[in-house]
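Re: that backbone. Tokens:
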């Protein structure tokens, strides 16, 4: 149970720290990861909201959080990277569906960024498949539940 809660906390940390970084440093390191490139379909590869700042902050903050939880800085950094890689996959797929950056796509917005780091946890820590599934579901519940509140508090730019 402790592993499950720690891993869900890391998922929230990995995916929430870029949002907080955007609010704390609105113009610093906000270069798009895709360099503004456009795919053959005429839409951006990833979109303007996927930045180097978000990637770097997520990797470092998740590393620090994992170290504090006794899971190791290295594990946390890779966990954060995997969460961001899942988020990039989501963004890429959303652009192919002609959805604007930060447009709502329930499920696609949550599961890749939860599943990839949880697969790492299965491989690295040996957590069971049930823990992987439950952590992904808990992450989905937490982020869909807390996002409207963070929007009302001015932390998120959209309520989803």
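Recovered sequence:
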């Amino acid at each position: 149970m402790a592993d499950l809660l720690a891993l869900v906390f890391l998922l929230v940390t990995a995916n929430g720290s870029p949002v907080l970084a955007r609010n704390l440093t609105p113009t610093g390191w906000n270069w798009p990861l895709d360099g503004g490139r456009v795919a053959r379909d005429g839409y951006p590869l990833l979109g303007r909201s996927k930045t180097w700042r978000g990637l770097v902050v997520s990797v470092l903050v998740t590393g620090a959080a994992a170290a504090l939880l006794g899971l190791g800085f290295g594990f946390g950094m890779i966990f954060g990277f995997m969460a961001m890689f899942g988020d990039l996959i989501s963004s890429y797929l959303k652009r192919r569906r002609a959805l604007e950056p930060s447009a709502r796509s329930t499920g696609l917005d949550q599961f890749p960024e939860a599943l990839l780091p949880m697969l790492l946890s299965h491989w690295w820590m040996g957590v069971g498949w049930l823990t992987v599934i439950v952590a992904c579901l808990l992450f989905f519940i937490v982020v869909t539940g807390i996002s409207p509140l963070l929007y009302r508090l001015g932390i998120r730019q959209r309520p989803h």
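The chain has a mean pLDDT of 87. The chain has one domain: 2-26+42-152.
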